[in-house]
Write a structure and sequence with these properties.
Helices cover about 25% and strands about 35% of the residues. It is built from seven helices and 17 strands. An eight-stranded mixed sheet has the order 1-16-17-15-12-9-10-11, with helices on both faces. The protein has a five-stranded mixed sheet with strand order 2-3-4-5-6, with helices on one face. It is globular.
Length: about 300
């Protein structure tokens, strides 16, 4: 186990964290929003936070038992736009993300995933195939990993159960001057099982399953109940020779060792495996863990 610090991103900065909140810069705007893992004290005063923040997310009571998200409202302090574009550069890859002050605390990008995006870029550029490499992104949300894979020459299938985030992902693709990502609005487990029956193979598989969720037809997703079956089916889709595999788990208390045990039971000869925590570091050197990962690759 080890920590993976997010590489420096010019357009993003974790300024401060503490008292169950984080203060972040996305492009030119600074946002304050809840963060349950920031259990320590803030380094800056509340007065400084409010002075710096363009908008602050305030939670409202009540939560859907089968939703991983906290609902609330944004207090727009400095009349910033509800939606804006953020540039993202990594190696030779240049992308644009459309960000938004949504009714959930998320804005459309998970900066801690930049380390996994770097991994995707690296592995796709090492895979030597006569055919275009195929990448499957499950629970793909607004498509950061899909864009990275597409920008690095992959044929990408992007699966999510929510039509609105598929539309958001498409906007990100178009803003980044990319095209031809395959969009699939479906329950991830159903899709994977069907692909196994069809004998499909992918060079890259990326999974970002939430703790709870619903498919487009009301299918329930509960992480601890579905993860084992999902991983077993995904492993059957991996290309025999040239491949990479990334699993992210955001559910608090869920260990990367669980992922390792499931994968090793079904895929005994795992090459080049890594596992640990995805971590952001604020400007006061406080390290904020934001999920665990398990990944491996043939190259």
């Amino acid at each position: 186990m080890y920590n993976l610090l997010t590489p420096n991103i010019a357009s993003y900065e974790l300024i401060d964290s503490g008292n169950y909140e984080k203060l972040e810069r996305f492009g030119e705007f600074i946002l304050a929003r809840p963060e349950p893992q920031a259990v320590w004290d803030k380094s800056l005063s509340e007065e400084v936070w409010l002075k710096k923040a363009s908008a602050v997310f305030r939670k409202t009571k009540g939560k859907d038992q089968l939703s991983p998200e906290e609902r609330g409202d944004w207090q727009n302090i400095k009349n910033m736009p509800e939606k804006w574009l953020m540039n993202y550069e990594q190696g030779k890859t240049k992308l644009k993300f459309k960000l938004s002050l949504s009714s959930f605390k998320h804005v459309g990008i998970f900066p801690e995933q930049a380390e996994n995006w770097r991994f995707i870029e690296e592995k796709l550029n090492k895979i030597s195939l006569e055919e275009t490499p195929k990448v499957l992104n499950l629970f793909a949300y607004t498509g950061g990993a899909s864009l990275i894979a597409k920008a690095n020459g992959a044929d990408v299938t992007h699966v999510d159960s929510m039509k609105q985030v598929i539309s958001w992902s498409r906007e990100n693709m178009e803003a980044s001057n990319l095209s031809d990502i395959r969009w699939v609005i479906e329950d991830a487990l159903k899709f994977v099982k069907r692909e196994v029956k069809r004998g499909k193979k992918y060079n890259g598989i990326i999974l970002d399953p939430p703790a709870y969720g619903r498919g487009p037809d009301g299918e329930k997703w509960i992480l601890e109940e579905g993860l084992n079956e999902l991983i077993k089916n995904c492993l059957m889709l991996l290309h025999e020779k040239d491949f990479f595999f990334i699993l992210n788990l955001y559910s608090m208390g869920f260990s990367a060792v669980i992922a390792e045990t499931i994968i090793k039971q079904n895929y005994p000869n795992i090459p080049n495996s890594e596992m640990g925590e995805l971590v952001l570091q604020d400007t006061f050197q406080k390290r904020l863990p934001l999920g665990v990962f398990y990944r491996f690759a043939s190259v």
